[in-house]
Design goal:
single chain; two-stranded antiparallel ribbon; 25 helices
Length: 505
């Protein structure tokens, strides 16, 4: 994904090793965590601890991991040090989440989201809407290097348009996420695309070119599947589009000029310093540029609301400026004559992001404790011992990335830890670093969004308003990517060697 989709790369790449910790002990917190999550889902309907079940379960897992670590000579200082570093790594993403909430609120009252829905309903028909979502999200994500930015901007709009057409939200979200992660994975602006070759000891653009072997077929298959699904889904809202257009036009001031705000946001994300040379000159701007871009989007949208949507603001209970402030901070709902639009034209502001923020903090605490007691290193090291063949090495790397996305709840750790652990093993087999870096991306980057308690899954579910369980099956690109990389490895297609880069085995 990108920049913890917006933040900095992990500053601490050391993986804690605890020689006192055995594999069975390292697995205790994992087994209990998975058991509690399964029990909560299948027997308690996800409400074992009310609306914050996953949060509490992650914290329980962290407490159990801490006890295991203390019993195996891990110091309290080490555990807290890793927790603190984990929390520091998501500081910028948490600020971004607040801005995303504010963005959703101001883009609603300014008429930007209604305008996107209005024009989208006229252009995007159900017959090609789903594959169009994949392509649009892929283009935006390639340009910005961020699946998170893509979801927070065009993703929200596409969800709104699809709902208005009566399409299943899970399908729409799956299409958006598939396209967003394709662009994120292939964009040189994405931090995970830079992180993977850095961990493997490779070069960025060789890594991107090599990823095309698995990524292009996967995205093409994804588009074909969504094209087929478009002909099998009944769009219940299609017949009512004219009514929807009339209600939107009657409620909001609709004009192409409203698109100036998202254009400015995307332009800032693309044009602000990003490359290595720019980063050396302006490291602060590189680090906070998403904050600048989305913050500008919030402020501009607030101005546009005051200028263009005075009639809308007049229907809300406070003063114009007060209503815009409310849209930024808390709940906003704009009532229309259509119930479908009433559901769409509501936003939670910054307050609406708190559930996701609390989940990310809980996940980072669990991942920090697991790393602090040496459990992550111990589990990954055991997986490495299973890699007896070249295909076994690829398969073990995939399993390690998938497992760490579940256990550590963070895609960065799912790239950094296997990257460090398996680098020497790939070198010993005379395999070029692109083999490792591609596998890290195919299985670490894109699958993070399929885990509800992973930072990526929590973010996407919160922003798009669609649960992970609802969209996971339709995120075809994401769950097919590790399968395709294993097929390619198993068939020995273009496995690069260190000594002969062009050699095919």
């Amino acid at each position: 994904m990108a920049e913890h989709q917006f933040g900095k790369l992990p500053q601490n790449e050391n993986i804690v090793e605890n020689k006192e910790l055995g594999l069975m002990e390292a697995m205790i917190p994992v087994v209990i965590l998975v058991a509690l999550l399964a029990y909560n889902i299948f027997f308690q309907g996800g409400e074992m601890f009310g609306g914050y079940s996953n949060h509490y379960i992650l914290l329980i897992g962290a407490a159990i991991a801490a006890v295991v670590g203390l019993m195996n000579k891990t110091t309290v200082q080490t555990i807290f040090k890793e927790i603190l570093e984990n929390l520091q790594s998501v500081l910028v993403p948490l600020l971004i989440l607040f801005l995303v909430g504010a963005l959703a609120g101001t883009w609603l009252v300014s008429g930007i989201i209604p305008a996107m829905v209005y024009y989208g309903l006229q252009v995007l028909s159900p017959s090609f809407f789903l594959p169009a979502c994949v392509v649009i999200a892929a283009i935006i994500s390639l340009a910005t290097g961020s699946s998170w930015t893509t979801s927070a901007t065009v993703g929200i709009a596409l969800i709104g348009i699809g709902k208005a057409l009566g399409l299943p939200p899970g399908m729409i979200a799956g299409a958006v996420i598939s396209g967003a992660y394709f662009g994120d994975k292939m964009s040189p602006l994405s931090d995970t695309t830079n992180l993977a070759p850095a961990m493997a000891g490779g070069e960025l653009f060789q890594h991107i070119r090599y990823m095309m072997i698995t990524t292009v077929p996967t995205i093409l298959i994804t588009i074909v599947i969504f094209s087929i699904l478009s002909f099998t889904v009944t769009a219940t809202g299609n017949a009512d589009v004219s009514n929807l257009l009339g209600v939107i036009d009657q409620t909001f001031y609709i004009s192409p000029i409203l698109f100036l705000v998202p254009i400015v946001v995307v332009a800032l994300i693309i044009l602000l310093p990003n490359g290595p040379k720019d980063a050396e000159k302006t490291p602060l701007i590189k680090k906070v540029k998403p904050l600048i871009a989305l913050g500008a989007g919030v402020l501009l949208a607030a101005v546009f609301a005051l200028v263009f949507q005075t009639d809308v603001l007049a229907t809300l209970p406070g003063s114009n400026i007060g209503d815009v402030t409310t849209a930024i901070l808390t709940d906003t709902a704009i009532k229309t004559e259509n119930e479908t639009l009433n559901e769409l034209f509501s936003a939670g502001g910054m307050k609406g992001m708190l559930w996701t923020i609390y989940l990310i903090i809980s996940a980072m605490i669990f991942g920090g404790v697991m790393d602090g007691i040496g459990a992550l290193q111990r589990i990954t090291k055991s997986l490495l011992s299973l890699a007896k063949s070249t295909f076994g090495l690829f398969a073990t790397t995939v399993a390690s990335c998938l497992g760490l996305n579940v256990i550590a709840s963070d895609q960065y750790l799912a790239i950094v830890i296997p990257g460090k652990m398996f680098k020497n093993a790939f070198e010993d087999r005379d395999l070029a670093p692109e083999n490792l870096s591609r596998t890290l991306e195919d299985s670490g980057t894109v699958t993070s969004v399929l885990i509800p308690w992973n930072t990526c899954g929590a973010y996407q579910a919160g922003v798009l308003g669609v649960g992970v369980a609802e969209y996971a099956a339709f995120a075809f690109f994401n769950w097919m990517s590790p399968i395709v990389t294993l097929v390619v490895a198993g068939l020995g297609i273009k496995i690069k060697q260190k000594a002969k880069i062009g050699r095919v085995s």
